[in-house]
Structures are given as C-alpha cells and as structure tokens.
C-alpha cells in the first residue's frame, strides 16, 4: 500500500511538472524595432508587445533595446555600427534563460534586416519563425525621409549629405549601412560595412549564413503596398533596382538563383512567404497584426517544451 501511495504521489508530481512545462507552450517572441522607435515606446512597440501578451497569455516577449536606456536605444537606430549591434544582441539573447529553447522573431522596418543578421550570424538560440514587416532586405536607394519634428532623423540626413560612403559616415550612420546605389554597385560592395556581407554579395560566400537562414520553419516577408518611406518598398521582398532603374524581383537575382543566403531552399520547401499589407509604412492596425501575424505564426505550440522535463 505504501508503495502504491508513493507511486501515485510521484505520478502526480510528474503530471504537475508537465502542466507547468505546458505553461510556456508558446515559443517566446523577440522584437526588433525600427528607426526612430524604441524597445518600449507605448505608442508602438510597447503596445505591440502588450497586445501579443494579451492575445497569447503566458507568452514571453522580449523587445530588443540597444544601449542602457530608451534614449540610447533611439539614438542607436541612427548612429552606430550595425555589426556591433548585432553581436551585442547575439550575446543578450544567448544569455536569456527564457529563450534557450528558441523563439519566434519579428523585425520592424530596419529591425527586419538586423534580426535576419542575427539568424544568419548567430541563431543561438535558434529562431523558429522569422517575420519581417517593411524591412529593407535589399537595401534602400535613398535614405529614408524624416518628419520635421524628428531631430535625430534630420541630423542623420545632414550627416549623410557629406557622402554615405565616406569613411566617417559609413562606419557611424546606421542608414548608410544598408544604403545601396544601384548605379554604383562597385563602391557599395567595397565600402558598405553591413549589407553586402549579410546578403553574401562579396566574392567570399559565408555558407553558415545560408545554412542558418534555411533552417527557419517559416520566413514571412511583409511588404507595405502604400509604403513611400522605403525606396523601393519592394526591398521588403528583396527586390531591387538594376542600373537602369528597373525593379528586379528576387527570383531573377543571383542572390536567389545561386542561393547565396538560403532563400531558394526556403522557397522550394514552401517556407518563404511573400505577404502584402495594404497600408503605408508600419501603419498596420492591431487587428491585422492579430489575424496575419499572431494567429498564424506565433500561436503554435512549442513542441520542444512539451515533453522535456525541465530541471
Ligand atoms: C561565417 O559566419 C559565421 C557566423 O557568423 C562566422 O562564425 C564565421 O567566422 C564566418 N566565416 C568566415 C570565414 O568569415
Ligand atoms: C517560390 O516557389 C513557388 C512554388 O512553390 C514559385 O511559384 C515561386 O515562383 C517561387 N518564388 C521565387 C521567388 O522564386
């Protein structure tokens, strides 16, 4: 009898443990905000974070902050070195216990190409679904415009007017690090410190980039059809201008045909998704976000958590 009771107790302890493990049934989510924004702005990413938490109770959401406070974080969206920022993010995410079984990631605007760089360069812990909204994956042919009231943005534009490829600017101005002049690709390849590397456009192709990106469960690329902030808006789908200014879709580019970063492999297995959101840059509403992002890509159960006993 004693043994029997003991077994029952062990059994229930086991069940309780399983139920506890089930509590974090959703993959955690990591957000990387866009230019002019911060990790926690209650008008934008802060609101999105809260909305995800209300929609999927118990989910862990981590919003990336560069630097030690929101002010530094906002500045870091204009000034700094993206390569260093990505390395710091790799370190932070690796050290977060809540993320150790992997996570879903959403990058907003320039945060889209930056979080993709995390996947390609680090991916430890690994990203399950990657969603980018209005990202500039193929670069921008013009620097983004600024609202009159945005002093930091206007400062960025002023600094840039001294030449995006000058030594001083290209290492310190974030937007210069994904600027691509279609009429001057040689200079771009030689001088841009971020985008040619992350898109494997240089002579040396880093195979890890392709391997890591192709390991995603889904890569969802959302383009804003009315976007006038990003030129071309189709950069969200990796389309870009040729020398004559014609827009060349991804599948006609070498990055795809020679599969420099794993996009072809993803597409061939139905994991690369091209989506449109019919609004201007980042002007989607929460209902769109619920129907098109949260429910299809964030609400699946984290299988890895289900049957592992956590110690
Ligand atoms: C390729 O990328 C990986 C991941 O970032 C890095 O560890 C490795 O050093 C790179 N290889 C070369 C030869 O640069
Ligand atoms: C991706 O694959 C689909 C078929 O699954 C194909 O119709 C489409 O053209 C491919 N996209 C690209 C960019 O090649």
UniProtKB/TrEMBL annotation:
- Where would you find the membrane-spanning parts of this chain? none
Q: Keyword check for DNA damage, yes or no.
A: no
Which keywords belong to this entry?
Answer: Disulfide bond, Glycoprotein, Hydrolase, Signal
User: Which EC number(s) does UniProt give?
Assistant: 3.1.2.22
Where would one find the signal peptide in this protein?
1-21
Keyword check for Disulfide bond: yes
Q: Name one GO molecular function term.
A: palmitoyl-(protein) hydrolase activity
The enzyme class is: hydrolase
Which Pfam families is this protein grouped with? Palm_thioest
Q: What is this protein called?
A: Palmitoyl-protein thioesterase 1
The source organism is Diversispora epigaea
């Amino acid at each position: 009898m004693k043994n029997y009771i003991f077994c029952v107790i062990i059994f229930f302890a086991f069940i309780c443990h399983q139920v506890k493990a089930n509590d974090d049934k959703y993959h955690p989510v990591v957000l990387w905000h866009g230019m002019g924004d911060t990790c926690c702005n209650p008008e934008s990413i802060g609101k999105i974070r809260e909305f995800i938490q209300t929609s999927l109770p118990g989910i862990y959401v981590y919003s990336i902050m560069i630097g030690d406070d929101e002010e530094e974080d906002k500045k870091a969206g204009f000034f700094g070195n993206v390569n260093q920022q990505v390395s710091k993010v790799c370190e932070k995410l690796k050290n977060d216990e809540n993320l150790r079984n992997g996570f879903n990631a959403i990058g907003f605007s320039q945060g889209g190409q930056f979080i993709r760089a995390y996947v390609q360069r680090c991916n430890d812990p690994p990203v399950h679904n990657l969603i980018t909204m209005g990202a500039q994956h193929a670069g921008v042919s013009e620097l983004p415009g600024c609202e009159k009231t945005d002093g930091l943005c206007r400062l960025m534009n002023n600094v840039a007017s001294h030449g995006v490829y000058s030594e001083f600017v290209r290492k310190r101005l974030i937007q210069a690090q994904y600027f691509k002049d279609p009429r001057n690709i040689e200079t771009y390849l030689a001088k841009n410190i971020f985008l040619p590397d992350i898109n494997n456009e240089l002579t040396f192709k880093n195979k890890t980039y392709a391997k890591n990106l192709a390991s995603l469960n889904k890569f969802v690329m959302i383009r804003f059809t009315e976007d006038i902030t990003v030129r071309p808006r189709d950069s969200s789908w990796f389309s870009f201008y040729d020398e004559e200014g014609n827009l060349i879709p991804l599948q006609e580019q070498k990055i795809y045909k020679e599969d420099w970063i794993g996009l072809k492999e993803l597409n061939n297995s139905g994991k690369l998704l091209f989506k449109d959101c019919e609004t201007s840059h980042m002007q989607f509403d929460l209902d769109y976000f619920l129907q098109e992002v949260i429910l299809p890509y964030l609400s699946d159960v984290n299988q890895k958590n289900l049957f592992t006993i956590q110690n």
